[in-house]
Amino acid sequence: MTGPRDEEGLDPESWDAMRALGHRMVDDMMGYLEQVRDRPAWQPVPDSAKAALDRPLPRLPEGAEQAYADFVTHVLPYPLGNIHPRFWGWVIGTGTPLGALAEMLGATMNPNVGGGDHGANYVERQVLEWCRELFGFPAGASGILVSGGSMANLVGLAVARNEVAGYDVRRLGVAAAPAPFTLYGSAEMHSSVQKAVELLGFGSEALRLAPVNAAFEVDVEALERMIAEDRAAGRRPLCIIGNAGTVNTGAIDDLARLADIAARERLWYHVDGAFGSLAVLDPELAPRLAGMERADSLAFDLHKWLYVPYEAGCTLVRRAAAHRDTFSLTPGYLAHAERGAAGGELWFSDYGIQLSRGFRALKVWMSFKEHGIDRYARLVRQNVDQARYLERLVENSPALELLAPVPLNIVCFRYRGALRDEAAIDALNRELLMQVHERGIAVPSNATLHGRFAIRVAITNHRSRREDFDLLVREVEAIGRELETRPAGAP
Amino acid sequence: MTGPRDEEGLDPESWDAMRALGHRMVDDMMGYLEQVRDRPAWQPVPDSAKAALDRPLPRLPEGAEQAYADFVTHVLPYPLGNIHPRFWGWVIGTGTPLGALAEMLGATMNPNVGGGDHGANYVERQVLEWCRELFGFPAGASGILVSGGSMANLVGLAVARNEVAGYDVRRLGVAAAPAPFTLYGSAEMHSSVQKAVELLGFGSEALRLAPVNAAFEVDVEALERMIAEDRAAGRRPLCIIGNAGTVNTGAIDDLARLADIAARERLWYHVDGAFGSLAVLDPELAPRLAGMERADSLAFDLHKWLYVPYEAGCTLVRRAAAHRDTFSLTPGYLAHAERGAAGGELWFSDYGIQLSRGFRALKVWMSFKEHGIDRYARLVRQNVDQARYLERLVENSPALELLAPVPLNIVCFRYRGALRDEAAIDALNRELLMQVHERGIAVPSNATLHGRFAIRVAITNHRSRREDFDLLVREVEAIGRELETRPAGAP
To answer: Which of A57, A99, A226, B434 could form a cystine bridge with A309, CB 3.0-4.6 A?
Structure first.
């Protein structure tokens, strides 16, 4: 039973040829990962590649083999670098070989995991249940996989807004509030929280930034005073945001005290645990996150400190009804049926912004099964131990200076040498960091701490070894010396 | 140079074993797609699979092979069905073999496409440039790939809010508006627009739903009157939303007249073109979308009518500065550098909600190159022709009844037979649709049109052939007859 000749499709003329191409891709990709340590941590995109990626829209078929050849030539050699053992920029995970293969499996089934009765929905439910268990959220708590931490914070704060406002915000909007809403967190909060606050219509002025102590943890008394002052001024406090690992230094707020305040003040308690929340896996680190399990909503990523490939973030919400009440919208064409493909009880579109949702649960599910959570716990701990190792290397170096405590997996430091002028030190370290990238040595990023430019090493990398930090320090010292002794104005 | 034995990672003990597993996966996945026509369009998830997907968190490694075996046994047999030639539910694309393989490639490189200088960013820029060209947006327009239509609408409406409000909404919020904001579209608008309006803090009451004509297109005069009345009542009209293909019937609003009104009234003009906008590829259909190219923002999906695997949506914004002004936020730790990995001019995180962004551009780029856009144009036309073919089949069937015009790729009909009671007809068609799913025949979804339950066939499927629609009609007639003649109360 073949179709008339005048109808066409996008399936290959030869499935065998597509299989052979797929085999070649697998070999190339596994080789690419196997050899990653031998390549530079980063290299710039050459003009030739930029030109090849600035071409007219292809009208005629070039074929799968050619598309792949162009990828191999112009794209594959120029990764961001986070697959490399010495990538420690921003907070970016490594990915794994099976995680990459799982993306092919998921995209072959190609489900929309927005709802209906099909296998992918049960995989996501399983992953969410495992996450609930990991973070000690109660049975009946809900969750949703999202693109990452920004979206996870947005989901949590959207529920906060609609749940605590005290009237029907979905129908009447923010302008119907009896008094201006306010939200509270530390000055070290991630910018995605501000982005969420802006999107939700609060305005960034509604976000109160309490100062931090010397350990970059929120000053809880100051935060309490801000709430009291706002109440006295007739404003309407809505939510406290706690940090389980700040982006700059990995500081962990006193999450239990924040939980107490939120309970006493009847505020929503959201915890941004993008990466730091995963420290809960290690029995020695877990106590420092005490109180996190009391959050009304918790945002975290699986593509950071669980090393799953992009994109995989998650929001857990303590009360499923509040979660659903914020997002559920079921017009006739999305009606949930009793049976058939539109049946089933799992409609994730009722718990988030997306209606079209890919199968990101699969790579998480397969990865958890591949490695078991105990191995992840050891790796989280290994990264923390590596941060402490680097901390000691910096402390033992006469030329380097630590710029912040190292509570978790982030080390902020700078080259100082014999320099004393702050502006000169900043300028030198900016240049130094760019050269560390350009020479392919490693990819730290930067932070600004008390106005000082810091080289920032954030370790969510399962390929890093202690020797990699030895190498980093050695090279930073060498480049620093070069720059320090370079005649002023020299290139 | 190997690391000390006490450090571990997530890379496989044997790369050869992982390569072999990858080859097996490729063979299985290509075979799965090659044979898809021979399997049921959908089948329920059995209790055994549900039980296998409701297990305790794995603490110890089960290994990659076991994880894959469990996927093959418990997940793979139960897809939503949109890879099947007879899946026409909701609006869901088919995916392609190369698209699935591209996901593996992208996840191997595993970049964060939020910013910095690396290959993936240039691939996304290329894809956005091609989209800009396809939709006739001016040079200098900006864009961003997103998860899908819901997010694409949210991005467009966020820019609308911040750009047209006339004050600093990001800082001051919606409550600082001098008058209540209002937005306008038809009663057939997609629910994701309402979701976006709620999220952005407007409140759903701000969304004015103009009635539609017999073709389910917006009644433009009624919409104009609503704007005038709101102005007279002191409200602040902000935005008009046009439909390039409504979800229920594929109706296309008069996009040029809406553009005129938006220009005259100085409102933002957003077009929701989730799938219908792609009809622009066909020279005969394109004129019906005239005016779409005048939109301030356009939302559309590549995972629907361009058959790319999930997730791939897009927003184009006419004025890049407005787009950037809504989303750009660059704290110190996201500072864009002059050189190095944090260099480059492409910071997509400045143009959307996500900071962590996967490499969804790759599957689009490779697919466009594989097939060429002319083939996509023919396939879009083929799906429209198939809808017309099905329309004729329905019209020629004495037992079936068409419930809406077929302007594009969607056919809404029902079984009527000899029945005259509306409630009985609705009930029969609900049962009929579930049986069409359960018997694995096909997966249409449903719509409610003038209060009537419609079986809804939305064709964004490159595997469908005319014979598939013959089969659908034959089976619907047969099941309808069965149900019609079944004694009342029989199972």
So the answer is: A99
Q: How far apart are CA B78 and CA B80, in angstroms?
A: 7
Amino acid at B173: G
How far is A272 from A231, CA to CA, in rounded Å?
24
Sequence-distant (≥ 6) Cβ neighbours of residue A70 within 8 angstroms: A52, A62, B369
Q: Which CATH architecture has domain B374-485?
A: Alpha-Beta Complex (3.90)
List all residues 6 or more positions away from B423 whose beta carbon is below 8 Å from its beta carbon.
none
Q: Which 3 state secondary structure label does DSSP give A446?
A: strand
**Does residue A348 contact residue A124 with C-beta atoms inside 8 Å?**
yes
Q: For A105-141, what is each residue's pLDDT tens digit?
A: 999 999 999 999 999 999 999 999 999 999 999 999 9
**Model confidence over A194-225: pLDDT tens digits?**
999 999 999 999 999 999 999 999 999 999 99
pTM over 0.95? The answer is: yes
- Report CA torsion sign: B359, B365, B371, B374: positive
Number of cross-chain residue pairs from A and B with Cβ atoms under 8 Å apart? 589
Tokens coding A167: 């009237």
Domain A103-371 fold is Aspartate Aminotransferase; domain 2 (3.40.640)
Contact A296, A269 (CB under 8 A): yes
Find the CB nearest B119 among A78, A195, A467.
Answer: A78
The single residue listed with the structure tokens 């399997």 is: B39
pLDDT recorded at residue B372: 98
Torsion angle of alpha carbons A81, A85, A87, A91, nearest 10°?
Answer: 110
Task: Answer whether A33 sits within 8 Å of B199, measured CB to CB.
Answer: no
A-chain residues within 8 Å CB-CB of B303?
A: 356
Sheet holding A142-146, edge to edge: A142-146, A313-317, A297-301, A268-272, A236-243, A181-186, A207-210
Is B58 close to A83, i.e. CB distance below 8 A?
Answer: no
Q: Do domains A103-371 and A374-485 have the same CATH topology?
A: no
Contacts of A335 in chain B (CB under 8 A): 446, 448
What was the ipTM of the complex prediction?
A: 0.97
- Spatial separation of the C-alpha atoms in residues A362 and A368, rounded to whole Å: 10
Beta strands in A288-331 (DSSP E): 297-301, 313-317
Q: Give the pair of three-digit tokens for residue B394.
A: 């329905």
pLDDT at position A334: 85
Per DSSP, A465 falls in state -
Phi-psi bin for A180: left (phi > 0), alpha (psi -120 to 50), beta?
beta
Residue B260 identity: D
Q: What parts of chain A have a pLDDT lower than 50?
A: 1-4
Of B25, B78, B370, the CB nearest to A105: B25
Q: Comparing C-alpha atoms, which of A393, A403, A479 is closest to residue A441?
A: A479
- For residue B442, give both structure tokens: 């096909």
- Listed by start position, the domains of chain B span 16-81, 103-371, 374-485
Query: What would the DSSP string read from start to end of B264-330?
Result: HHT-EEEEE-TTGGGGGGSTTTGGGGTTGGG-SEEEEESSSTT-PPS--EEEEES-HHHHHHHH---
**Which of chain B's residues have a Cβ under 8 Å away from the Cβ of A84?**
none
Closest CA to B313 of B194, B487, B147: B147
Query: Does residue A138 sit in helix, strand or coil?
Result: coil
User: CA-CA distances (angstroms) from residue A2 to A52, B96, B343, B462, B468?
Assistant: 39, 19, 53, 14, 11
Distance CA A245, CA A240 (A): 15
Give the closest-approach CA distance of B288 to chain A in angstroms: 22
**Pairing outcome for strands B452-458 and B443-449:** antiparallel
The distance of B369 to chain A (nearest Cα, Å) reads: 5
Condensed to tens digits (0 to 9), the pLDDT of residues B173-194 reads 999 999 999 999 999 999 999 9
DSSP state of A243: E
